[in-house]
Amino acid sequence: MMLNLKKIHLKSIFTIGLFVFYPFLVLFIFGWFVIPYAKEYLKEIIAFGLLSLVFFNCILIIPKVKIRKWLLLLFTIVLSVLIFIKISFYHHYGVKISASALFVIFETNAVEATDFLSNYVNYFTIVLLLLLLNPYLLYFVKSIRVFFQKSLQENLSFSILKIVALLLIPISLYLIHLKFQDKNIVLTSYYTYEDFLSTKKLLKKNIAQKHSKIIKVDSFNKSPQIHVVIIGESTSKWHMQLYGYSRETNPLLTEIEDELIVFKDVITPHVHTINALEKILTLSNFNDPNKKENASVVQLSNQAGYTTYWLSNQRPVGLHESTASLISGGADFKYFLSSNDYMFNIYDENILPKLDDIILEKKEKKIIFIHLIGTHSGYDNRYPESYSYFNGVRENQKFTHEKAISLTNEYDNSVRYNDFIVREIIEKIRKTNTNSYVMYFSDHGDDIFDVYNDIAGHNEYHGTSPMYEIPFIVWASESYKNNHPKFEFLKKNRFKKYNLEHFIHSFSEISDIKFNLFQPTNSIFNSHFKETKRIIKNGEDYDAR
Q1: What is the pLDDT of residue 490?
Q2: What does each C-alpha distance from 3 to 50, 160, 190, 474, 489 come to in angstroms?
Q3: 156-189: pLDDT as tens digits
Q4: Is 451 a domain residue?
Q5: CA distances from 410 to 91, 314, 507 (A)
Q6: Do 185 and 317 belong together in one domain?
């Protein structure tokens, strides 16, 4: 037995273990400070310890030194990346990375993801990254590299050690699968990606078609009309003059405020575009988020005899075809005017000439869905130089560090430019002298250092009020008002609480479409509208926060 023990060469095992379990050690130390609950911390430690043990034993059973060396390097890099994601996510959001976050990542293109993550780089994540790089930096120190290589060349062929290693691998994997699956980023990503693809397949089957099998239109207005639904991007009511913001970010819409219905208390169901638009533009809602039988506002419009147009200033694809582009698949005519990433200058005025062409088309009934780039991050790329209106510290600005001042000014400039775009669309429709309305809302808002010192953007884990509270504005032509006497009466609903996940019912009401699944209590334009609990995240009542 003593001879066998000598053959094990503990120095070699220690060297391999030192590298493989180094990320685990980082989690053990850092996790204590960033993981909010002791029970959660303990589960994370056990789960990651088991995963590290699997990798460690896989290396031990490899007989060839060269393969063992490269495998050790690969496994250590993988474990370090997982720890960086895990700890930084807990640091920023106070929760483990979840399926909803991964859904957003899968649909987001690389440039947008980089832009999003750049807002969350701080000293903590830099220190964490450098700390995790230590093993690789040390490898290039000559004396340590020699020790490392010599250790790996020691004999690891002892049969009992291999048997133990082979037994520990399936045991560890079984425990991870049985008790700690939700703590394993690799498994969570795999299962979430499968779910993501199946959801996309379902959307493509149900939503990307011109008609829906589950919708039956009972009646609709057959008179000539042009309606426009403007879908904004990342615009919070917190930075809009129409909603009491201190800066003049809506000078043009304020000029015609008496003609508008400005709904004061509307929230989005999610603060990420993919999840928000899936609920806003379809029958999906919190209680049934991924309906196997679903339908969209585009399909509803088609079945009510409208010619439908989808006019977008956003790219139709990222890593995958986006939710918005799938919903647009049902439209009679689709125009995607931007092929650039978000890092480039993209101005929404690009849509105006095409809108002119659509208005002139000889179709009696039109509904035009316009998807703006709006105030999407990279705020200084959303408006031309002539709209660089705001500078310096705004009145009563909560946080006044350099980044907060700069991004607040850029965001407010983009909101002011967005004001110009929405007003231009209204004026173009006004000139048609038709039975028409223009409706504008944003998919979600951005928090520009409004609540926290270190937040500029949107994420559902913080889920602050500026991210959820969005503009919802309606303009109607004189002809529309004359044909809908109750329209003025329903202005009283503008102060009521509303979750935009019920938008399809409001849309059908204002468009004079009656269909089999219509619920009057969910339409903000209906006299029978009822306020309900606005549920967000994992069942949280928004108004009870």
Answers
A1: 76
A2: 30, 13, 45, 85, 94
A3: 545 566 677 777 778 877 787 777 777 777 777 7
A4: yes
A5: 27, 20, 32
A6: no
